[in-house]
Amino acid sequence: MKKYLLFPALMAIAISGFSQTVVFSDDFESGAANWDIDGYWGVTDEYAYGGGFSFTDSPWDPTYTAGEVQTATMVTSVDLSAALDAEVTFYALIDLEEGFDYMYLDASDDDGAGWINIGVFNGEGMLTDWMPFTFGLGAFVGSPTVKLRFRFEPDFFVEYDGMYIDDFTITSYTTDASPPLILHDVMPLYQGALYENELTATLLDASGISSTSLWYSADGAAYSSVSGVSLGGDDYGYTIPVMDPGTWITYYFTATDAADDLNTATSPEYEIITGQYIGYDDGVIDFVNDIGNASLSGYSQAAVRITLDSFATVVSLVIQNYTDNTRPNDSILIHVWADDAGLPGADLIEPFKLFPEATLELPNKGTRVDLRPYADELEGLIGDIWIGFSSPDGAAWVSQSTPGVALRTYTEFFGTWAEYYSDFHFRAITGPYSGAPNADFTFDASGDPSVLFTDLSTNYPDSWEWDFGDGVGSSTLQNPSYTYTANGDYEVCLTAGNAIGTSTHCETVTIGSFTPPAALFTFDDSADPAISFTDLSTNAPTAWVWTFGDGGGSTVADPSHTYSTNGTFNVCLTASNLAGDDTYCTDVVIEGNAVAPVADYTYSGVGLTVNFTDISTNTPTFWGWDFGDGTSSFDQNPVHSFGNSGVFEVCLTAGNMAGTDESCKTLSVATDLEDLAAAGVVVYPNPATDQVLVNLSDWGGNATLQLYDLQGKLVLQQMMVPGTQVINLTELSSGAYRLWISSVQKTATGVLLVDN
Fold first, then answer.
1. CA 643 to CA 650: how far, in whole Å?
2. Most CB contacts within 10 A, which of 106, 205, 607, 626?
3. Bond preceding residue 541 cis, omega within 30 of 0
4. pTM passes above 0.85
5. Residues 107-136: pLDDT tens digits?
6. Which residues contact 155 (CB under 8 A, 6 or more apart)?
7. At 660, which CATH number?
């Protein structure tokens, strides 16, 4: 198995070439009489280094007792009052549950009244080769009552074989060759401070301390140092200057004693993250569990609810993972979730992968998560958020306190989040909390009288109340614009608020370029006679007066108006504001209103059959014909056959929704030339050119001759006497004409063809 040892705050030394005295020695061959035992300590022949026995915390059982704190303390003190240096050496085998069960070596210079830890042991499976250990005791020389003890603190669960110790020896020296002992209480899980980090260390050395420093590196940069300041006694203080929240700091201490030959000690490296720490668990590790898609637990995701009491930016996370030989970790996917009704909701950042920092040497080492690249997404948060991880590619282990004291841990099991009644050790690190906003804004009046306002308030406002100073305008937008209606100086005030409180800031805005409108409009006549008007006036009119030219009007900016009659109308708009007014007029032509028809028609035909053609105007939609012979028609263009020759008054009534109109014409209807001959009338030539001869041989008296064109228009009329007369046709156009001859006694009709 993998072996590891942990030795915080100790220095292993080897001293030779000086006068030395063994002041205490125990090979445990004679039992454990030199030790005051609390617990199950004793000697065993299961393992031995130099003889047949060794000293162990589990002498009679294959494993030690879980949860039982045991101590083995030297019965008799050793006198180091005359020594200038000292050390303790021994050999050991180790089989302690990694990350949970620890053996400690403590020293006391006051006969056991107070103890200082000088060594820590942990690791599994190291039972084959005896390991030598040496610890300097220079910090305790000068005391006549020095004691050492072994202190074993296992957790309450897994039990292993234990630790075996042999050939335990304390040696004093007449020359000081030991550096100071540096003791430093490390904050859990990288916990640092928001501003300056004030750190302390206890420096123990019989000769005193001549100098001490703390060396630190910020985010991997070159190391800088600060000198330690005595706090009284053996304690020293060190101040790391202010760093941005979320800075990863690595640091260590150096201390030089005041011996004739100076000895300098260097501590192990420690790590902190600057910022405001938020965590809720008690830090006690009771169990471990696995999280991920391939986890044995079935939990796919883990989250801890973090409550931000005021606005803050989350800059870092710490996830306390765990590993050992049987619990390897896969990569984890880091999440920061919004709260959704008391459960993890939407991701606030794009989840990203990293690998847990826990190792076999440091099985409970916290995994640091740098969130500074996500400052835009994690800035100004307040209330509940959730931090945690998933492991899509496998599973990762976490430490937990059981039962939980915070009860803020949740796990996702088959897609459902539920409370987990243990505490996972997750931390959130933020920048400083912000209070009520500090209201501030700027404005751009280059578009006077329109002004653009830009909020510059700090401390994360989430509400804005603007008063534009004219008694009218206000807004709740963060960055509004506003158009003033008159020149003047206006005190504009912004009240910015958040859950903590509000503040107000005011500025004076000067409006000086306000001018009267320049009236202009356009119109849309596509729905004639309904017209839509659109105001195009410039310079911000506030009132509009329209006259539509037909007696109508409006006071809205973009009115519509329907005309009741056709015609040309002069439409005027007067646009005004507090600076004045202007008028613009233009003509609107209306043609879309319905108008009653003007009835009219033409006709043509030969003999008794006549073709009638409607030529009424204004778009009639219905027609009524009265042919004067007792018959009628509702066709637009009818064909009618009269029953006999004669003169008929034919009337057309044309109508639409606007009204009706009537047109009547007199038609002469007769048969053809054979009818004329039968009536004693001779017409020749027919067709005729320029003139035609008409003979009335049997009429016995005067008659009237009339010619009608095919539209029913009288084009020639002449008195006739018995005999033959010449009728002049030179004024007539070529075509067919209806010939009508009538006297008191009789009437005759026919068709005359003119070819001019």
1. 14
2. 205
3. no
4. no
5. 999 999 999 999 999 988 899 999 999 999
6. 66, 67, 97, 100, 101, 285, 286
7. 2.60.40.10
